[in-house]
Amino acid sequence: MARKKTKLAYITNDAARRITLRKRRHGLLKKVYELSVLCNVPVCAIIYSPQETDPVVWPSTGEARELLNRFNTTEGLSKENNMMNQEKFLLKQIVKLRGQLSRIMAENDDLAGEILLLECMAGRLVCGLRTYELGLVGRAVGRRIEAVEDRILMLRSSEVETQALPLLLPAPAMDEAAEARILMLRSSEVETQALPPLLPAPAMDEAMEARILMLRSGEVETQALPLLLPAPVMVETVVGGVDGWTDGVLGWEEELFSGCANLFQPDLGC
């Protein structure tokens, strides 16, 4: 269990004061001894008590007198740097407490100014504030303005570092079907990377799609047939027997026409 913090004030009870003196004196002499052993420095202690006629001296009266004579013969500021009596100790504590008090009062004023500023933003009339309260509100507004200016300067300084980087737009959101399509295309890139790029197929209407389906269904029936030459172009109508018919055909050789004429002569009555 932790010991309760002791209040630094004069103990009015005589019995309690004597007990405290005995305990604290014993602890002080113990610390002096540890300091002399651990750090190997010359140390002495002289403690006066109102209940005792002779002071308590450590380590001995002769050693303490020798050390005090050595200290008195020392000259310069090193002798008085760390010296402190009761008056100097109390003055030092007063200065320290005044600094703490001024800091706490400044923090309270800042909080009061923030509260008044929020009340004014909520609808409280500024004309009803006193002069001291107006000063608190003004300082609160000034602190907020400084915070905004510091934020602007920080953003401007960060723009110089990032202005050389290109502006990247966020990737558009994709559904599951699009992600699956992308994965399928990426997996097929290895197989098709040696193929030349194909142009996209032109848009087709319903009639064209039906025509393509009909042609594809007919490919099975006609794939075993030999390749036929295109029919010759006819420029005149076949009239009057083989001679007229042969005159109207272009691109055929004359020997082929004569053979055909001898073949069909009996039937045509020529």
TrEMBL record:
Alphabetized, the UniProt keywords read:
DNA-binding, Nucleus, Transcription, Transcription regulation
Superkingdom of source: Eukaryota
Gene3D superfamilies, A to Z: Transcription factor, MADS-box
Give the UniProt subcellular location, in the record's own words.
Answer: Nucleus
SUPFAM superfamilies in UniProt: SRF-like
Task: Work out whether the entry's keyword set contains Transcription regulation.
Answer: yes
Keyword Cell membrane among record annotations: no
- In Pfam terms, one family for this protein is SRF-TF
Q: Name one GO cellular component term.
A: nucleus
Could you give a GO molecular-function term held by this entry?
A: DNA binding
Q: Where is the MADS-box domain?
A: 1-49
SMART domains found in the cross-reference section: MADS
Name of the featured protein = MADS-box domain-containing protein
Lineage here is: Eukaryota, Viridiplantae, Streptophyta, Embryophyta, Tracheophyta
